[in-house]
Amino acid sequence: MTAHVIKVSGTVQGVGFRPTVWRLAREMGRRGHVLNDGEGVTILIDGDVDAFISTLRRNAPPLARIDSIRIEPSAADLPDDFDILPSRTSQPETGIAADAATCPECLAEILAAQERRAHYAFTNCTHCGPRWTIIRAVPYDRANTSMAGFPLCPDCAREYANPADRRFHAQPIACPACGPKLWLEGGAGDAITETARLIGAGKIIAIKGLGGFHLCCDAGNEQAVAALRQRKRRDRKPMALMVRDVAVARTLAVVDEAAERLLTSPAAPIVLLRQRANTGLAAGLAPGQDRLGIMLPYTPLHHLLLRAVDRPLVMTSGNLSDEPQCTDNDDATARLGGIADHHLLHNRPIVHRADDSVVRPARRGAITIRRARGLAPAPVTLHDSFGATPTLLALGPDLKNTVTLLRGNRAVSSPHIGDLSTPLARVDYARTVELFLTLHRAAPAALACDLHPDFHSTRRAEELAAQFTVPLTPVQHHHAHIAAVMAERGLALDHAPVIGVALDGLGLGSDGTIWGGEFLLASFRGFERLAHFPLVAQPGGDRAAREPWRMAVAYVEALLGWENAVGGHAALAALKARGADALVKLCRSTLSARTTSAGRLFDAVAALLGLCVDEQNYEGEAAMLLEASAARSSDRMCYDDVVSPADWAGLMRHILDDVQRGAATSDIAARFHSTLAAMVVAEAARLAGQHGVSQVALSGGCFNNALLLDAVCDGLEAQGLEALYHRVMPPGDGGVSLGQAAVAAAVFRDSHP
Length: 753
Ligand code: ZN
Ligand code: ZN
Ligand code: FE
Fold this sequence. Notes:
With 753 residues, the chain is an alpha/beta fold. It is built from 24 helices and 28 strands.
């Protein structure tokens, strides 16, 4: 029987793939070898190749992701048994794995008193532990990670070298004898026990974790939670919880099967779950929201701490509002000194910041709100037709920034970098982009950025374009949103245009106005703007994005005429009393910016319903409160007579009349959602018919809203249209860099036939 060479690509390095191949081959009595190379893993094997591959697929290690397998017959000489050979390094095409939550075997070890890793906070193996957060350079070897400063003890070295061991070639392998140490600043005794005692006494602790610092306190302690909010200057933004296990999560929130899978996945994200009543948690963890963000412990440190305190903990990111999370001990002591009473630190350096990922279960699968620790930088595989793409780097937008490196049909998006509004964030951004290029050994052949000339990300892209002397493609924000969903859903580079519905906060349009409620005819190459939400004034510019009542006034003025409308409505009289007349003047002046933003429409309605009037405490608050309110209603009524696609005035009039009649706020919120969805569906269907299109791509931050997403998808499907929505990337701006990269790939292809 002839031998075969099997080439496996995907996330197959640093995840225990070779030892798995080795073990299976030996068990099956095969001869050959396995090695890492630039494209992934190469296997030479004798015997029935199909039988081996199906066994391998069934037994692939938990963190591996096989993207493709190629098989060729081989006449190579076979050794007498099966070996693991040294790596052949060339240009690295293999993915860097994301960090993974502690696996069940490691958890059992730290909890078993007789194990040498009992109670050890940095236990890990090839199936779990840090990856992205510790890597400084490729290939992924210990010397290229922040574990380089911890020489292996003889016991760990033995495990590391033994292919039959779970820790074979586990680069971050460590034990109490040789690995990182944990301590409580200024504390005596066992750090975990002492920290648990302080938390029990109502203290706020800064805890160094995997990809950054958390600020932590007892989630049942009103004073501690209030103090944390006040010190962090975070008045209303929801704070996430960490609980010991799924059983505890169930006592606080509704955990169905899908939610349990998300909670216990190796990514261990924050999962937004419907909150139960009377949980004993402090009030004000998520003001006005119907959901709580809950995650499970994802490092041994967290497991040990949660077992020691045995109560739900607030675990919110260790930063001041809007600044990036701390990663460095000194930095944390300095910047968090005014917030935390104590610091629980360790000496394993964090190379890359990685915030906690945030996902929400929804009917069509989880919506990724923030793609960060555990999810990124897992690669996204695009359609084969992208295969010839040279290295492209997309710099993202300025809010919820991520950057994406595209090479061939493999896109690697960075974990959430965040908002680039503070100087600290910009320094962090420059560093992250540089590290990203270094890690992928990438000299980009082209760059992409947002169309907005004043974005910090755009300026950085211009600098890099000059540095590498390569072309820069500015991509319109909503085109990028739509391209992102097309790319992740595997549409071909030359795919015919689809109808793109981008419902979003803000993006500069090709005509210089601010877009955000867009119906596009879009391909990767380009787009045509077919229709949009009403163009209304955004009185006060950025202030109008923060202060929902301004948008309420602007919409009423634009759709109904302020003087006409104000008479019969108490809600508007209240706005008049806070100075609406002056705003109306501003709306009518040519000085006012104008926008078609769908996000601003949500703000306006939230203000008219009294849910969020004066000021949003965090981005998206008004829209989130509006959705949470609607979710409380069982009303599925639609303002039927306004579903003609463009009757925005009718929609506004019905809302005001309902408010005036004293209808329940949650019912009005629900009617707004169903009517808006119906209008969007009707418009998309009309345009699809006109242009002979059967697919409608949905993107933009408004599709973080599960009610809206479900209603729009249901409506489109009822019309026989295919709805393309995000499954991997966030609908919000975290997905934009992927779209930019895909568009740049199409543009590059056209200019280099
Ligand atoms: Zn493990
Ligand atoms: Zn050791
Ligand atoms: Fe956007």
